[in-house]
Write a structure and sequence with these properties.
Layout (H helix, E strand, L loop, with lengths): L7 H19 L8 H22 L12 H14 L4 H10 L6 H5 L1
Length: 108
């Protein structure tokens, strides 16, 4: 996606959100974050990711290098549990999903 096609309002929100999360974690204020807020933010991020992947018919990197393997797995397991899925279900979905080219490969 070229810069002219991107949503500047969403980019500004993403930057502000990133800064707010970093400040919250670095200042040790995580315990003050409302669980409902985390759920709402993650739900919308997942919804947006799925919509972009479906609409563009290509995978985009869902995370960057700042996310650890442990952090990724904590979220993946929470998403599976939220839908009462297990590793067997994941394996079925994983095998049904066509591996698409990452966004970077199309823009090179």
């Amino acid at each position: 996606m070229s810069t002219s096609e991107q949503n500047p309002e969403l980019q500004d929100l993403a930057r502000a959100f990133h800064a707010s999360v970093a400040t919250t974690i670095e200042s040790g204020q995580v315990a003050r974050v409302a669980p409902g807020d985390v759920t709402a933010l993650l739900s919308e991020a997942v919804r947006l990711y799925a919509a972009v992947v479906e609409e563009t018919e290509r995978e985009i990197p869902p995370i960057d290098a700042t996310i650890s393997t442990t952090e990724a797995m904590v979220v993946a397991c929470a998403l599976l549990r939220a839908h009462r899925l297990n590793p067997f279900d994941l394996a079925l979905w994983f095998s049904r999903t066509v591996r698409r080219q990452p966004a970077d490969a199309h823009e090179a």
